[in-house]
Amino acid sequence: MRYLVQLYGDETAGTRPGAAGSDAEVGAGAAIDELAGEAIVAGEALQDGASCRTIRHDGGRVTVTDGPVAETAEGLAGFYVLEAPSLDDAVELARRLPAAAHGGVEVRPMVEWFDRTPERRTTSTPRWLATIHGPEVEGDHPGTEAWDRGAAAHAAFVEAAGDAVLAGGALHPTSTATTVRVRDGELLVTDGPYAESVEIVGGFYVLQGHGSALEEVAARIPVGDGGAVQLRRVVEPDG
Question: Mind listing the domains of the chain with CATH numbers?
């Protein structure tokens, strides 16, 4: 089973997981080495909220604003796609990530995942995590007719977007999410997403692109009326 693992931490530069030179980043190296080859399918660190853009759909009108979908003290700092036999195994892996001690980790089972990065990646083009937000509807539940219609719409989007889409995943509903924290060495596991205001409702894409062209692609991601797509830039290895 594959799981999306989202890393949340303080948005303050230097303290959030993944921040350059942070204690979390130093600790992450050992944790990632321990997991590498065992469970990690994919993963990226993300820039802070200053890099965010939000694309909202409201009554057929599309608006683009700077900043995340919701202003929170603890933002999304990175993500992994993990392969694990069960949720318990995924939680055990998640507890070893520094974000579990510095902020929190949300573990959520995936319906599907694809990654075309090796054949499509343009190294000089910035990458973005595009997360899909909005109220849960029937189409967020696998096996329904609404889900099948949504899957067809997303397949058409991926085909039309071409090389702008590098990877993507569909998720089970937020009711399947588990939040993992470690405090003073004690594992704290709770049902539900890390924060209701920032949950990923249906899925996500990894896109590559610049400026208005990127926003035009993101605006074509199928979302329901009142939904939104949040773009947060990926931290590139070369800076």
Answer: 2-233 (3.30.70.1060)
